[in-house]
Amino acid sequence: MNASSIEPSSESSFHILPEHSHIVFHCLAPRGRPTPKVSWSGGPQHSSLSSHDGKLTIKDASISRHGGNYSCVAENLAGSKRVEFTLIVT
């Protein structure tokens, strides 16, 4: 297996969101053996973030807590792939 089989996918990498809105980032790694692990990090504190099924949900977005760059990483024994998402809260 090669690392390209675990490449994360998403609809878009740049989002502008009104304050107090909700958004869901999708980062899916549909193929790979062993099954790739998907993890998220980022935001103003550049911290690890919890997600469910590769989805990162931000509720009640605020400029100070949620605006910034986010990264999704899919990894397994073949390697890892990273996708970056930028969120601007207005």
UniProtKB/TrEMBL annotation:
Biased composition (Polar residues): 42-51
Gene3D superfamilies: Immunoglobulins (2.60.40.10)
Domain Ig-like stretches: 8-90
Protein's UniProt name: Tyrosine-protein kinase-like otk
UniProt lineage: Eukaryota, Metazoa, Ecdysozoa, Arthropoda, Hexapoda
InterPro entries registered for this protein in UniProt: Ig-like_dom, Ig-like_dom_sf, Ig-like_fold, Ig_sub, Ig_sub2
Domain of life: Eukaryota
PROSITE patterns, alphabetized: IG_LIKE (PS50835)
